[in-house]
Amino acid sequence: MKAFCLHEVPCRDRAPLERRINAVAVQVVAAECGDQHAPSVRSSTFMNESHLDKLRDDAWQRGAVTGRGVDVAGGPIPRKPGYYGQPVVRPPVWTWEIPIYFFVGGLGGMSAVIALGALLFHHFGVARTAMWVAAVASVLSPILLILDLGRPHLFIHMLRVFKPQSAMSMGSWILTAFGMCVVPGLIALELQTFHLFAGAIDQILGVAAVILMFGSAIFGMLLATYTGVLIGATAIPAWSLHHRLLPIHFGAAGLGSAAALLELLGHRIAP
After folding, report:
1. Any residues with CB less than 8 A from the CB of 239 and at least 6 apart, and which?
2. How far is 109 from 104, CA to CA, in rounded Å?
């Protein structure tokens, strides 16, 4: 084991460490000298170890730890709350609508991507079903956001200003553009599938369906991943420390959910 050397510690951290070492040394000397009024390092260490033994026995017998853990001096977990009695990291203020929106938006956005891929590889049944899933998600997503905001006109206010540096502003525009591509694209695809119009109109509907499905796939991919950027900009350490990987994680989760739903609906493409 490598010996600890105080000179290896940076200068800015050396003074607090020296004070802590001196305080522990004073306690040890006082304990060795028999000072009953000084705090005992041995007794506190023994109490901590015995408490940890009780926690281990509790976990072994019950399968869960119900007692309080041992506080570590100088550890990363703060013992006391922050300013004005508030916790250092506040919990999210979102209600149940936002987690469901994350799921529905990711599922619908990646369904549009699957629909485009199925169309390009001539799996028209999968493309139609995936577009229906994307269209339903494009209708449910703004409803969930409006329910979370409480006042419908607040969602309209988000569209008044275009802020590329704001994930929330970009998300509102992405969701709007996604719905404007998916719903007309589904209508054009259904009309062209059943050939309700003959001649040039049917061909125009086919071209329009392909163009709108391309737009749906682009905005759908953005819809499924921008939520990772949104929560990565918060103060929650588990999110902010992984802000680069969260969009990929959300996109992969949305793709898996969309593929699973399509398979449950009866579509299974053999490799």
Report:
1. 231, 232, 246
2. 8
**In one letter, which amino acid is 221?**
M
Q: For the chain, how many helices (H) and strands (E)?
A: 9, 0
Contacts of 137 (CB under 8 A, 6+ apart): 104, 105, 107, 108, 109, 111
Q: pLDDT digit string (tens) for 205-256?
A: 999 999 999 999 999 999 999 999 999 887 777 788 888 999 999 999 999 9
What is the set of domains in the chain, with CATH numbers? 14-61 (no CATH), 97-264 (1.20.1630.10)
- pTM > 0.85: yes or no: no
In this structure, are residues 70 and 48 in contact, taking their beta carbons and an 8 Å threshold?
yes
Non-local (6+) Cβ contacts of 132 within 8 A are: 186
Fill in the amino acid letter for 139: V
What contacts 186, CB < 8 A, 6 or more positions away? 131, 132, 134, 135
- The answer to whether 262 touches 129, Cβ cutoff 8 Å, is yes
Query: How many residues would you count in the chain?
Result: 271
Cα 249 to Cα 102, 103, 204, 238, 240: the distances in Å are: 12, 12, 38, 13, 14
The whole-angstrom separation of Cα 118 and Cα 130 is 9
Of the candidates 178, 183, 171, 172, the one whose C-alpha atom is nearest the C-alpha of residue 250 is 171
72 CB contacts (<8 Å, ≥6 apart)? Answer: none
- Contact between 216 and 115 under an 8 Å Cβ cutoff? The reply is yes
